[in-house]
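Hi support team,

I submitted a single chain yesterday and got back a structure, but I'm not sure I'm reading the token output correctly. Could someone confirm the output below corresponds to the sequence I sent? I've pasted both exactly as they appear in my results page.

Thanks,
R.
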Amino acid sequence: MAAFLFQIVIYIIFFGIANGDSRVVNSTAGSIIGHTTSASFGGKTGKVYQYLGIPFAEPPTGQRRFSKPVPKAPFSSPFNASTFGKGCPQFSFYLQQWLPGNPAQSEDCLTINVFVPEAAVTSSKKYPVMIWIYGGAYVIGQAGIYAAENVAMLGEVVVVTFNYRLSALGFLSTEDDNAPGNFGLWDQRLAIKWVHDNIAAFGGDPHTVTIFGNSAGAASAITQALYRENQGYFKRIIVESGSPFCPWAFEEHPKKYAERLAKALNCPYGSSVAILDCLRKKSFEDIINNAIVGSQDEKVFRAEWVPVKDGHFLSEKPTDSYVNASGLLNIDLLIGSNSFDGAFVAILALQPYLQQLMNQSFTNGVPRKFFEETFIPMFVRDIAGKDDDALKKLLIHQYTDWSDPDNSQKTLQSLLRLSADYNFYMPVLRVLLPHAKYANHKNTYVYEFDQRSSFSQDPTYLTGANHGDEVPYVFGLPYSMAAGMHYEGGKVAVAEMDLSKKMVLMWTNFAKSGNPNSPTATTAGVTWPMFNLNTEQYIYLTSNAISVKSHLLPGRRDFWLNLEPLLLDKILPGHGQTSGGTPIVG
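Hi R., thanks for writing in. Yes, this is the structure output for that exact sequence:
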């Protein structure tokens, strides 16, 4: 015991000199040494204690690869939590768009980070907790991008971020008990449980926890809420542009990808045992670099490695009835999407097709021809599983500006709206509407983010917010995103800084009370109304003015939730839920 205390003293002396104030937390995970940083944002400055890179699981290597995570044994000596842990293995090219340089990766990546405002250290009361799940289509992302000191300081909440396994290492499935899949979801769940068990030692309230995330992180937040054994671990979720209903968020036939990966790495692929035995002996670099195994049509709107039906975490494909009977209805929900959410998916997925048009001017009818002869048919095949002329004509009719049908810019915007509706907006509605209808005594709040930032590098025809554009605003425009989002060197307008401040306060208010308007005044200029099926009010977020609107995109919503399923059921009897879900009126 004396030696143990001596180690703590040495750590405090050394790191107190090198990195500022230190603080030791004694938790059930062991003794953890945090270090302070100064945060200045939204007209406020304060101290934040950071506990970075804390392992919450044993390394998922060897026989633990393609298995559920094993909780980390308590530390036998003080753990110096001074730096972010390495990212989980992923395709580096995509990650470096977010985190330029050469981000370090390791299969020993299951680490957690805790950001604690000074008030939570000096007060006897416990502070609300917000757990962030990063997005990235389940194939890219890492917690080190999301420095959360501005949120913790301004909002006076404890913020937690963590890594989870990605790509084939996180979501390979052989569709049997040998590798049922969803290992990344189990990583998330273990991190959430770690917070429940340990966060009180850091000053956080384990009974006032909010899960929030963007894209795949948003879909994951809902999926964690659907998992009944998580009940009691959190009471609210914030969903930013994602849902388990997104076409890219669930795979019905995952084994084919496991077999293709095995074949690419010269492994036997006749049985699950043979596949796993061989893949567990390969380097993670070999697995990640060979993980793009889908055909062009298969990969147009989705990655190969995503959540699956595993018989435990997900007992079935997410359906309307599944959501209506789930634990999701027992928690508060703040949910929304961005005006041009579909741009990221469309541009990334269609890159091979667009490459063929590089030598052509994207004017003089080229966008119209591409839209009708390439883009719409791909959507039809993805929706119906085959070509269908009636559905093709219906989509063309719905997404054509008939006042100026040959306008190239309007055609490109229609293309992006179709992508947004199919990939994000309608899947979000399929969670929002049941929650508003059936979640008695629980709060439902809705937003649309429509800010095209002054530092945006998107093409000019993208006049609103691209997918993920809200994330730096939610995090208080932190240094960790500056290079990837191109706002380094003071490129943020004053109005954008103010919008970010308001959003941080609204998000953290919701985490505290279930109401984004209080307890802290947001200076938004309006009161964010609760969503209900009569008025359908939501808040519209831009730097010009925050306002309250009603009935978000009603024509497009009615098309996808009512008309399209009826037509699809005519094409494929019994498959009317494939994209839009069961018809919803109101």
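A quick pointer for reading it: Residues 2-99+107-295 form a domain with the Rossmann fold fold (CATH 3.40.50.1820). Let us know if anything else looks off.

Best,
Support desk
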